[in-house]
Every structure is written in C-alpha cells, then in structure tokens.
Design a protein that fits this description.
71% helix; elongated; transmembrane
C-alpha cells in the first residue's frame, strides 16, 4: 500500500502550484460574492475547482463540460425548485408531506445526470448545484455567482493549460 501518489516526486512543483492556484482563484471569486449561506452550491463549486486543478486533462474538467453541465443543472434545479414549491401546498396528492421534500431534490440530481449524459456535458459537481438550488432556494445573484465562478475557473484553466498536470 502506497500512501503518497506516485506522481508526487515527479510533479511536486505542480502539486504546490496547482493547489495554490485553486486557492487563489476561488478566494478572489468568493471575495466578491457572498453566497456562503448556500453551502451545497459552494461545495459544488469547490468540487469543480478540484477537478479543474487536480485533474485538468480529464474529460470532466473541459470547459464545455464544466460550463454546460452547470448550466443544465441550474435549469434543472430552478425547475425542480418550482415543482417543489407547488407540491408543498398539495399535500393530498402524496401520502405524506415529506415525500416531495425528499423526492424532488433527488429528482433534480437524477434529471441532471440524465440530461448531462445525453448531451455529453458530464460534470459531476454540477449535480450538486441543482441539488443546492432545490434545497436552499435560488436568486439571480446565486445563479450569477455560479456562472461567473465556472467561467473564471475555465478561463484560468485555459490560460494555464500548458502548466497544469494531472495530479491524480
């Protein structure tokens, strides 16, 4: 059993550089946006940051998949949020009031997976954005933060792609 990644010795400077780059990029983005109360969405963006800077050559780190995957999941999240809002007042349609509270957030993830896979825009952390929107609600500023963050992360990756290595 090996504790440290085999690539560590060869790419040690990249491990430092890419981890610092991820930290700095996300710090700058979060400095200008105050969405810390949207923890599921922040976690999703953190996972996107990990994929972009730790696994930049992987398919899920490609800008098209990052941006379009999140956009699909934003639409799914908002749609499911409104479905959830409608079903809260329709208790008679369900056995218990908790069914929509449990099923609709899960549905947002399932629909996100379905739509991302059929459109070849698979970016797993984006499903967390859909889930966060359904569970925690949304606002135009939240959507703007997601779009700005994924755009800046993708731009940073694009500009520095020749220096980035897969660390996993």
């Amino acid at each position: 059993m090996q504790i440290f990644n085999r690539k560590l010795k060869k790419y040690f400077p990249n491990y430092i550089f890419q981890s610092l780059l991820a930290t700095i990029t996300l710090t700058i983005i979060l400095y200008f946006e105050n969405i810390f109360t949207r923890t599921a969405i922040i976690a999703s963006l953190g996972a996107t940051t990990f994929i972009i800077f730790a696994m930049p050559k992987y398919a899920t780190a490609q800008p098209r998949k990052v941006i379009e995957g999140h956009m699909i999941c934003i639409i799914v999240g908002i749609s499911c949020f409104y479905i959830s809002s409608l079903t809260q007042n329709r208790e008679s349609l369900f056995l218990t009031q908790n069914v929509p509270k449990i099923f609709i957030p899960a549905l947002s993830v399932g629909l996100s997976i379905f739509l991302m896979t059929i459109t070849n825009t698979e970016h797993p952390p984006a499903a967390g954005s859909a889930l966060g929107i359904v569970v925690q609600g949304w606002s135009y500023s939240t959507i703007l933060v997601i779009l700005i963050t994924i755009s800046l992360l993708s731009l940073t990756k694009y500009l520095l792609k020749s220096w980035l290595k897969d660390l996993v």
